[in-house]
Amino acid sequence: MRIDTHNHWMPPAYVEAIREHAASDTSFARAAALMLMADEGGALRRLDRRLGEMDEAGINVSVISLPPPSVFFGNERFAAHTAARVNDDLGAGVEKEP
């Protein structure tokens, strides 16, 4: 069994939170724009592509996490709300593709 212990995915709630916070924080907006443009439509946003890459590499299990900055942007309340939404997306992804 092959296990990938370092794999990132940007679920829809994460991308939405990044865009939402970027609208009110210009310094964060620059970094967010670079991150989102670097993966426009790519594997970091598409779970089906992540799974296809795992199959191609012969990986059976993958530990998925958010890419930096994870949910650590905005104030504490925004971060906690983002974490809850992202966890729901991650859970739905796992249910769909255990």
Order of helices and strands: EHHHEH
Low-confidence stretches: none
**Gyration radius, in Å:** 14 Å
Spatial separation of the terminal alpha carbons: 15 Å
Helix percentage: 55-70%
Structural class: mainly alpha
Strand % is: 5-15%
Mean pLDDT: 91
Name the assembly state: single chain
How does the major sheet shape up? 2 strands, parallel
Please report the number of helical segments. Answer: 4
Tell the overall outline.
globular
Could you give the order of strands across the largest sheet?
A: 1-2
Q: Report the strand count.
A: 2
Describe this structure in words.
- The radius of gyration is 14 Å and the shape is globular.
- The chain has 98 residues and is mainly alpha-helical.
- The mean pLDDT is 91.
